[in-house]
Amino acid sequence: MKGIRAAVAGLLLLLAATRSHGQQSPVAQLPWQMGPTKVEVGSHATLDVPEGYAFLDAKATERFNEMMHNLPDPTPTYTLAPTDLNWVAMFSYEDIGYVKDNEDLDADAILSSVREGTDAGNRERAKRGWAQLHITGWGLKPRYDPQIKSLAWAIRASSSQSNEEVVNYNTRLLGRFGVMDVVVITDADKLAGAVADFKNKLPGFDFVPGETYAEYRSGDRVAEYGLAALITGGAAAVAAKKGLFTVIGGFLAAAWKFVVAGFLALGAWFKSLFKRKQGA
After folding, report:
1. pLDDT-wise least confident of 35-39, 193-197, 224-228
2. Residue 144: which of 94, 193, 106 has the closest Cα?
3. How far apart (Å, rounded) are the C-alpha atoms in residues 128 and 26?
4. CA pair distance 253, 131, nearest whole angstrom
């Protein structure tokens, strides 16, 4: 999943075109599944979508990312969002085996590794004429919840072209055969509220029977790395795959804010679409 990191220019053009012609946004025309409903997140999990929220399956999320000018990704990705589009959560599954959770997390060492990976990525960004990314610290130090088998963290980053910081919240939900990756994308100013809202929806997420973490059996495939590597994993790979940092053209770092602003501008179309579908 590339996240929504490439969306800024494309989304603003999309908004301008739809406004000028009085048309409904193509984003609103996607086949959103409105809550309350229960959906499949691939073949590994299910999710209860409550009223006031909507879901895109993998095909629709692929179209969504195309609209946002994101590069294609072979990993099926699914989208959950509230109808006001204050935040977007994107789910994808890593078939890496059972991740042992008996590892202590050294936040300083992990952040150092993330910085090293980002510095290496900056060399490639420089070749492409892109701004450099700088890790400014933790938005949330890594926390593992042994009760719900969930690892969460947030990293702050800035761009050489902007003093604004971007923060993305990441969760890894551990299962018997792999990990569900979730990235919550929102305006940095709304992060705390978005994360709280997202967490309230997590009780509606379940791995399918036979694939929960507690159902591990001796002989199951065990992942080659532990909790820390889910963050650093390597750090460059996770960042590039999940859109941990916004990496498009000259919009780096500030891009999340512009993207979310674009989402909010779609709110009226989105809400009216829901009302029509729910009344059908």
Report:
1. 224-228
2. 106
3. 30
4. 9
- Going by their DSSP bridges, the two strands 33-34 and 88-94 should be labelled as unpaired
pLDDT for position 275 = 52
Q: What is the pLDDT of residues 50-87, one digit of tens each?
A: 999 999 999 998 888 777 645 456 789 999 988 877 78
Tell me, what DSSP letter sits at residue 246? -
Place of tokens 């509230």: 82
Question: Residue 42 — left, alpha, or beta (φ > 0 → left; ψ -120 to 50 → alpha)?
Answer: left
Q: What is the pLDDT of residues 24-33, one digit of tens each?
A: 567 778 899 9
Burial class (CB in 10 A: 0-12, 13-18, 19+), 13: exposed
> Could you tell me the pTM of the whole model?
0.72
Q: Which amino acid, residue 123?
A: R
C-alpha to C-alpha distances, 191 to 7, 84, 195, nearest whole angstrom: 19, 15, 6
**Angle CA(58)–CA(205)–CA(86) in degrees, nearest 5?**
70
Closest CA to 149 of 113, 178, 169: 178
pLDDT at 240 over 60: no
Contact between 211 and 116 under an 8 Å Cβ cutoff? The reply is no
Report phi then psi at 174, rounded to 5: -85, 135
Contacting residues for 267 by C-beta, under 8 A, at least 6 apart = 83, 84, 85
One-letter-per-residue 3-state SS of 190-208: HHHHHHHHHHHHHHHEEEC
Interatomic CA distance for residues 158 and 180, integer angstroms: 27
Report the chain's mean pLDDT, rounded to a whole number: 74
